[in-house]
Amino acid sequence: MMSVNVRMVDITGKAESERLAVAEGKIRLRRETIEKIRRGEVPKGDVLAVAKTAAIMAVKKTWEIIPLCHPIPITFVDVNFDVMEEELRVRVEVKTTAKTGVEMEALTGASVALLTVWDMVKSLEKDQEGQYPYTEINSIRVVEKVKRQL
Amino acid sequence: MMSVNVRMVDITGKAESERLAVAEGKIRLRRETIEKIRRGEVPKGDVLAVAKTAAIMAVKKTWEIIPLCHPIPITFVDVNFDVMEEELRVRVEVKTTAKTGVEMEALTGASVALLTVWDMVKSLEKDQEGQYPYTEINSIRVVEKVKRQL
Amino acid sequence: MMSVNVRMVDITGKAESERLAVAEGKIRLRRETIEKIRRGEVPKGDVLAVAKTAAIMAVKKTWEIIPLCHPIPITFVDVNFDVMEEELRVRVEVKTTAKTGVEMEALTGASVALLTVWDMVKSLEKDQEGQYPYTEINSIRVVEKVKRQL
Amino acid sequence: MMSVNVRMVDITGKAESERLAVAEGKIRLRRETIEKIRRGEVPKGDVLAVAKTAAIMAVKKTWEIIPLCHPIPITFVDVNFDVMEEELRVRVEVKTTAKTGVEMEALTGASVALLTVWDMVKSLEKDQEGQYPYTEINSIRVVEKVKRQL
Amino acid sequence: MMSVNVRMVDITGKAESERLAVAEGKIRLRRETIEKIRRGEVPKGDVLAVAKTAAIMAVKKTWEIIPLCHPIPITFVDVNFDVMEEELRVRVEVKTTAKTGVEMEALTGASVALLTVWDMVKSLEKDQEGQYPYTEINSIRVVEKVKRQL
Amino acid sequence: MMSVNVRMVDITGKAESERLAVAEGKIRLRRETIEKIRRGEVPKGDVLAVAKTAAIMAVKKTWEIIPLCHPIPITFVDVNFDVMEEELRVRVEVKTTAKTGVEMEALTGASVALLTVWDMVKSLEKDQEGQYPYTEINSIRVVEKVKRQL
């Protein structure tokens, strides 16, 4: 038998714990774009509400997107934004009661929040050639991971 | 009628063009993790093959993940990696013949490739408290976007 | 931090209970369409079997369709129809053992059952201009919701 | 060969046309709930932004939810709400250039918008026994369907 | 750049053709199970209607299930069964107008039809130890593939 | 009430057990194709890594593909291949802690692994008319099913 070198971790025997993970990330945007987000003047609409909704939905679908993630019964997702002068930061918190942690879920949520922000402001970030010389997603990382015995 | 402030762009009247977009991104990893990726010694298996497969599948599902993206008949996806000493870079190229561009698809593919890399090397990147003090995804951006009249 | 005003309910600390929810709804159809459903003469086929299958599948996917719904391990779905003279009624029962109720699942099942019925009889309900002057879905509501401590 | 009585319509030979469909529907809510939606005081947040986002995403997924619907490259979705004294109305417009119409997509969008509204205001609509004696979705119908030769 | 060895075929430059593919397969079942299918006495219900519905839905989702398949706008699916004495055969026909063929779609449809049949008759096929000594899916193959220039 | 003859099994009252199921299957391929798989010379790339990734993802999605399957929190999937002279065999093992067994998940994983292999070697298996006279999937069956009281 050829064991192809792709292995899902076996969590069958693990006990359920209460789990929390927090991930963050940021997107660099033009100052004018940031201004329009603040003023609610982005043509595609309410950037943060759509990005937050997208992030929550992506957190729940992480196991469908990341091949070796286990399906997890997400019990809470929170998504908050910090609108700075030249960038927009996101912080995603995910909770569950499960046999494995939710850091991939939090990271996926942060990534999708920022990708959705980008999609919402595409017309404002593109230059005349239709390129994005300035826009960039950065610093996607796990801020905190907690496991609490039940 | 209250027009809620969320607007999908109307592309009904646009002509189909040949479209290409290239996105890049990178993930900072410990030197030992990079070494294990190079040597094929990561416990969860072939990191780059799984990450590439995940990225291709995510590109095709972008319209399901990013709320205001249009469904697009993807005709090609390529995903390549550059394994540096302290980071792993990904470059995703997407093509289609459609009424709108595929930069969100390329960006989603790059993000999912890097998230999958993270998931594959979790056990190597975690410290003793189960935290990820070093791992970080950065520089997700659109490198090139091309539209060619048919 | 700007807290965007979209909040998933945190059910992490709630105990699991046995849950049941029943939803109903109805679709008004032409008498001739109802007759064809009864006689099994609808060109697209067995309306009720397809609608029931669609409803069961939709119940399981509710968390993918309704943004702030939690993923729930559905343990039972039943879908029954009442074919009246001028309308078709559906009753969807959903059960689970979970931390939150399943009324949204039952409502989604009832809605999808009725939408599927509509799709199956489109050709019989359209008038000569291709419009649907008569067809209408009504009275989608929760009939019963039960929570039983384990 | 037993031909099971379930038949997808064969649209292979049909020409592509520009298609538009508009569907409407409404949900009856308590006056106090309506007031809280107007004032932005619903605990789960911005009801209409989440419902609109959910509706757009559901329109794109209609072929996944309704078994015999063809996959269609949606080019535009618009969702608008009318907040009346005792009910909330939704109007969903869908466009495409395709071989078949988009009325099921518009109807699915309207249904999911209203289901999402319900989910957002659950805590305000439930009575002390956790039942929903008042809430009800009604009048989901196709208002207009247009086909324009290219 | 390390080119990971996973390559989607680039169909961007190919012309659209009318495509048809037919796949077949069969499942071996106990004679008593076959009898119950014929008489409509299977406890889980109408085996062939559910299997056909599942197959049509799977055909449309093939690009989500098979990593390197292109998304294809399916225009027709037909699924027929032949109930023999000791086995049940399925034949799935798929059509599209697209840049690539639909044999993977037809094969996926045939596989899912047979898997669904199995799921529907599980209780009849299991022995006293809960094993399936007799049930087996066989002969999944492409019967015909046609490409017709437009 | 017309009880449409489609019934999901009610597992609400069942206790959770540790579950394991193993399924197998095989695909007949040309000797030259097998040789190219062994040597890593298949143009579409690493056949077994992509097939294994696809199988793991399909196992997790079984409840979405097979209409009456319950959603199950998969805790482990393993996929192994045996490359023979004229055929390739797959063995899929699935584990969970749940109220019902995972044989449909294992069978779906085996089917999708083999379909993905087919997709990866299409260009090598097609004859000059674009037909597949030789390729065939066979012997998909449950090898073992275990239920262990917790």
Provide structural commentary.
- Chains A, B, C, D, E, F: One of its GO terms (biological process) is Mo-molybdopterin cofactor biosynthetic process.
- Chains A, B, C, D, E, F: Homohexamer; trimer of dimers.
- Chains A, B, C, D, E, F: GO terms for molecular function: cyclic pyranopterin monophosphate synthase activity.
- Chains A, B, C, D, E, F: It catalyses: (8S)-3',8-cyclo-7,8-dihydroguanosine 5'-triphosphate = cyclic pyranopterin phosphate + diphosphate.
- Chains A, B, C, D, E, F: It is an enzyme of class 4 (lyase).
- 6 copies of one chain form a homohexamer.
- Chain A has helices at 31-39, 47-60, 62-65, 103-120, 122-125; strands at residues 17-28, 74-83, 87-98, 136-149.
- In chain A, helix 2 runs antiparallel to helix 4 (103-120).
- In chain A, a hairpin with a 3-residue loop joins strand 2 (74-83) and strand 3.
- Chain A is an alpha+beta fold.
- In chain A, strands 2-3-1-4 form a 4-stranded antiparallel β-sheet, with helices on one face.
- Chain A has a single domain (23-149), classed as Molybdopterin cofactor biosynthesis C (MoaC) domain (Alpha-Beta Plaits, 2-Layer Sandwich), CATH 3.30.70.
- Chain A has 5 helices and 4 strands.
- The radius of gyration of chain A is 18 Å and the shape is elongated.
- The relative contact order of chain A is 0.30.
- The mean pLDDT of chain A is 96.
- At the A-B interface, helix 2, helix 4 and strand 4 of A face helix 2, helix 4 and strand 4 of B.
